Amino acid sequence: MKGLLWLWIPLLVACERDSDDKDQTPIGDADTDADADSDTDADTDADTDADTDTDVPACPELAFNAPGIEFNSTEGRTDDLESSCGGGGVPDTTVEVVVSTDGHYVFQLDSFDFEPIVTLRDACDGKELTCGVVDGIYATVEADLVAGEPVIVEIDGASGADGGGFALSVFEGGVGTDELDCTDQFDNDLDGLMDCFDPDCTPDPTCLPSCADEGWFGFPATVFGTTIGATNDETCGFDGGTAGDVSYAWTAPIDGRYAFELREDDTDFDASLKLSYAGCSDGVEVCTNAPGQGGEILFFTMVAGDTAILVVDGDEEGNFGLTASFVESSEIDCTDGLDEDFDGGADCADPDCDFEPQCVEVCDNQIDDDGDGQFDCIDGPCVGDPACMPVCPEETLTDVIISSTLGRPNVNTPSCAFAPGASERFIEFTAPEDGEYTFDLSSSGTDFDSVLSLLDSCGGAELACDDAFSFSAPNGGEQIAIDLVAGQTVIAVVDGNFPGADGTFELVVSKFDCDTNPNCLEVTWTNEVTTAGCFTFTSPTLNGPDALYALNGQDITLEFIAPAWDSTFEGTLIGTDLELTNVATFDFFGTDYQVTETMTGTLNGTTVTGTYLYTECDATNNPASCPADGFCEVTADFMFELP
């Protein structure tokens, strides 16, 4: 407490208190006891009765109306009072306090000269309501008071035999309240911060920084507002220089790391968020603009009492919800639906809660028991569980198998997966005879974005991997064709394309034999590319010497088996013309070329010739060569006789 000018006026009112009935009787009352003895003889006995009445001060000795502060002193006063908190042996006094409005009030007693004790009574010598001893600086008590009804405050001490000066502060507030008045020079909520120094007062116009439109306080706490019609004072975001913005002041109540977030559910425009940590002066500033409506979040470490200026701006104007949160070091409550440590997982979805009773995962029931989005063996607590120990093979394939990867361990890393880390299942297949075998994950029987790979053994080398993902058909469709000899065993691994991609699948294996397939043709392709003045190269021989065809009236559709090129050739025969139905692109290290490719081959002994024209856009020297889409285009015209 700052230095105080201690003033006191000793009020000494002589009172007489009978030692038996404690009634207060003013000194100077006449002795009304009459001697009823009618004996006129002289009474020679000495009067040995002692006068037991004692002098007591008036009560109350002081009085004032609250809220306010009473500066006075107990020096020179007598020791007449004692409460359940102590107080014997130290001068004391009484103060009558009357409040002007109903409410919950704080009584704080401070002294440099003695260790204060404060006691409330409902009247002089009345019932003790509460008492308090010094805790830090003050002796403090709280009580609910009614306007106009006096309460007696006893000012006493636990030490300081001579008494001394004191200050009694009475104001509305109490522990657990907010700073009720930001200008009364009292710490209403007893948090050690007074008026504008208290974060509760950040929104108060008296305390609001000049560069802030509004303010809010606490955590977690959300303020709702709008930039519609607001002036443009700040710049943050693509069009932040023209859109209206709103500035908020927020004061940190304690040291720590905080998160400020524009909530997606409450923000209806493409907003941006800016934080300034130097108040209204130049200093640390950060700005973020997330795609879409809301979702912006800024993290900042702050010291208690420091104020940040948050600016909601954007590429347009609209309504928003801005939340301030304290970033905990770990998830502190696994049932409140909040992500306290901002690691992306709330409650049971956070690994911090893995071993909480409500977050226990049963490791072999294909159910997400703890609701964290992770099933069985993929869930952290199941690592090491006997049900989750890797097993290979888990099943055996003969022709068709329907199974699931849900909740299985993740120990395999397929080379063609977008982001390895999903559950998988290991399936063994042994070739009954020599031949080419095709492993097919059917699209109709697979309900997740799958990946198929083949290993030469459990834990062995990967022989092939296929991901057939497309936006129109993301589930299943993977195929791997491989030549096997009789008795050769491979491991088919059904995996997911990314962590969390798991589910039910159907895996089919079949042996291909062109000799027994009536729709199979023997085909051989070779080709050479020559471009005058540019380059000459020979393309690889098309790998699969087999092609399947389908008759559709006078049309024949050809599909080559396992070509060495990136995509299969599919063509439809109309009359004697074979036209490719797919369009390919050609790029040679980013250089512009126009390439003519001649391809010759045999179809069941019939010679087939044709020409491919590759046109790579040459905007500088040959603008006419540029196709509309800017890419190389392929055309083909094959002439041959029907076999």
Structure description:
0% of the residues lie in helices and 38% in strands. The protein has 643 residues and is an all-beta fold. The strands form seven sheets. A nine-stranded mixed beta sheet has the order 4-6-11-8-9-10-7-12-5, with no helix packed on it. Strands 31-33-34-35-36-39-38-37 form an eight-stranded antiparallel β-barrel. The chain has a five-stranded mixed beta sheet with strand order 13-15-20-17-18, with no helix packed on it. Strand 9 (128-135) and strand 10 (138-145) form a beta hairpin. The chain starts with 14 loop residues before the first strand and ends with a strand. Mean pLDDT is 74; it is low at 1-53, 523-546, 550-605, 608-618 and 626-643.
Helix content: under 10%
Radius of gyration: 46 Å
Number of strands: 39
Largest sheet: 9 strands, mixed
Strand content: 35-45%
Question: Secondary-structure blueprint of this entry?
Answer:
Elements: E1 15-17, E2 24-26, E3 54-56, E4 62-66, E5 68-73, E6 93-99, E7 103-110, E8 115-121, E9 128-135, E10 138-145, E11 151-159, E12 165-172, E13 214-215, E14 221-226, E15 246-251, E16 256-262, E17 271-276, E18 285-288, E19 297-302, E20 307-314, E21 319-326, E22 395-396, E23 400-404, E24 425-430, E25 435-441, E26 450-455, E27 462-466, E28 479-484, E29 489-496, E30 504-512, E31 520-531, E32 535-538, E33 546-552, E34 555-560, E35 570-574, E36 577-580, E37 594-603, E38 606-615, E39 633-639
Parallel strand pairs: 4-6, 13-15, 22-24
Antiparallel strand pairs: 1-2, 1-3, 5-12, 6-11, 7-10, 7-12, 8-9, 8-11, 9-10, 14-21, 15-20, 16-19, 16-21, 17-18, 17-20, 23-30, 24-29, 25-28, 25-30, 26-27, 26-29, 31-32, 31-33, 31-37, 33-34, 34-35, 35-36, 36-39, 37-38, 38-39
